[in-house]
Amino acid sequence: MLLPWLVGALGITIGPLIASLVLSLTNYSILGSTEFVGLDNYAAVFSDPKFFKSMSVTLMYVCLAVPLQLGLALGLALLLEKGIRWLGVYRAGFYLPSLLGASVAIALLWRQIFKTDGLVNAVLSIFGVTGRNWLYDPDTALLTLVLLQVWTFGSPMIIFLAGLKEIPKELIEAATVDGAGYGRRLKSIVLPLLTPMIFFNLILQTVGAFQAFNQAYIVSGGTGGPVDSTLFYTLYVYIVGFIEYRMGYASALAWVLVIFIGILTAVQFIVSRKWVYYGDQ
Amino acid sequence: MKRRQFLGLGAAASVAALAACSNGTNSGGGSSGGVSQVRYGHWDNGSAQALYAALFQKFMDANEDIEILQEFASYDAFQERMTTQIAGGEVADIFWIASPQILAYNQAGIYHDVEGLPGFDFDSLDADMLDRLKIDGKLNTLPVGMITPCFRYNQTFLDELGAEAPSVWSWDSTAEFLRDYTNNNPDGNKGIFYHAGHDLTLEAWLRQHGEDLWTEDGQLGASIDGIASYLDWWEQLRLDEVTLSVEEQGGIQGAWNEFGSKVLSDIGSHNQILEASLVFPDFELREVPTPVLEDAADGHAFTYFVRVGVYEGVPEDRLEAVGRVLDFNLNSEEFITELGPVQGTPASLRQRTALEGTDDPNIQQANSVTDAVLAQEMRPRYDAPPNASTWRREYDAAIEQVVLGQASITDAVTQFHSTVSGSL
């Protein structure tokens, strides 16, 4: 019973994890000889301009995509929770993009939509607006990828919907009887009781956004361009490892990201004590 | 069995499974029921994949003791897969080699010595040519074809306009010709699409200016001024709107296949005419060697050899099968006449002769470019050193900075020069 799990855990998760940690202490390059270099790779990270560039691009992406995605998901969940007709159809329709996700096919579709003679510019031209090549402009390339992430709001929306169903009806009714309007009920009852779901989605989507890779790889042709404007951290790790053959350094970069996400998540948990309300508190 | 023993057994099994994944002789190919399986790894832009499959099938029908397992990918994906396969010790028995990786793969030790490869007939390959391909005195790659940079234009567009191509193709006369076409054609076509990233043409420019892209001792031979002057030639055309804009192109990359209906010409590799003619069958395409400086350095002409390697992990008892497959690939007249010179003008004299009598005008054009280049004196050419395998990415990044106004040509090229030199 345990053997398949054990093989999977060792071979696919724990083994590579340990291997990458060991490799991060070497100058392993696939093509040449390998030597132990201690913490040199980690020291090199902090003098690597591309590290700072890729980290800033990724942070910008996370800071834009996660709040927008969660805001949209929450807003739609509140709308759908009202018991409108064809609710199931809307729910399924809104969830569909999450199933497709930021897959290779969708990223390719994104390229077609945002290129110079793509759909977006065709629509803009109806209104007399001259478009641009959104993906080849350093000012807009990242924004198109943010939209791609926001588009997959279905998954957090479903979680929000489940959370909304759990809010006791009698609390809402009592507030209504006391004269509280929709806005007041939302602010004082719904959102506070939904904070565990918001926090859960925030953690999941933040970690997921830090790991975003497919969309940048496909849309930029694997370069992170134009001029590094879509050089996501994971893409940089990939380029260093598989294109530049510096696997040891790439492993160190990957572990720096793990540590960074770990610290960020810990901070989120600490801060959550101030704003997340659990029913049993 | 106690739980601890069971878990111990499981852990041992896992370690054994992991160990089985480690480096060793090539386990992908092999023998099955007396049939030698030969893995053949290659790339192309898609159009030749099916042709290769059909030709391999013909070979297998005639050689029932060999089964060819075709492993195909696009150019970038192929190189990434090679990286993974090298790490795992699972490289295909026969594999194509991208130009920036020739010496990098040598450093990785994945080449089998192919001198006297059993099953392969060396008679059709020029001995001097093979000598030039040796690395550290060893013949560890075989030439598939020769590629030369060229200037390609659409004769149909010129005929419609009643215009004529120049009789002498210098860089200045070419630029003038493109300007004239852009300014005078009624369809709003451009003279050329932006293609400063074509590596062989950059190399041609440098050699004409007396520089080498790479030196014999593995250094960057190109000067900042040399590269900058080439980008400046393109930048003048781009700023004068003689090229498509990079916004229209969706970047600095491009291919005739995408823009052939909007532009008169391209600077690229001479073999690409075959694919271009498939996309635009109604156009009459012409090719000439790359434009030449009026006072070009002696011996500037060159050809780049597309090469294949044999994996060092191929066991001795499978080498003959590998040699026979390569012989069919590199020497067979049937192979080249059905496939066409999509990988350049054949290196094998036998295959080249088979193409001489072709009535395909596009192959004739391609042949004429190679013949013109081969007739010239050629000084030695050196491949990219092992740690420079990403130079084309860095070069593209420099071009991108220029066309997006992020850096001047000199600054971008200086940064490129410093990055590439620093990695050597």
UniProtKB/TrEMBL annotation, chain B:
A Pfam family matched in the record: SBP_bac_8
Top-level taxonomic group: Bacteria
Compartment(s): Cell envelope
Signal peptide, first to last residue: 1-19
UniProt-listed InterPro entries: Bact_solute-bd_prot1, SBP
Family named by the database record: Belongs to the bacterial solute-binding protein 1 family.
Protein name: Carbohydrate ABC transporter substrate-binding protein
Taxonomic lineage of the native organism: Bacteria, Bacillati, Actinomycetota, Actinomycetes, Micrococcales
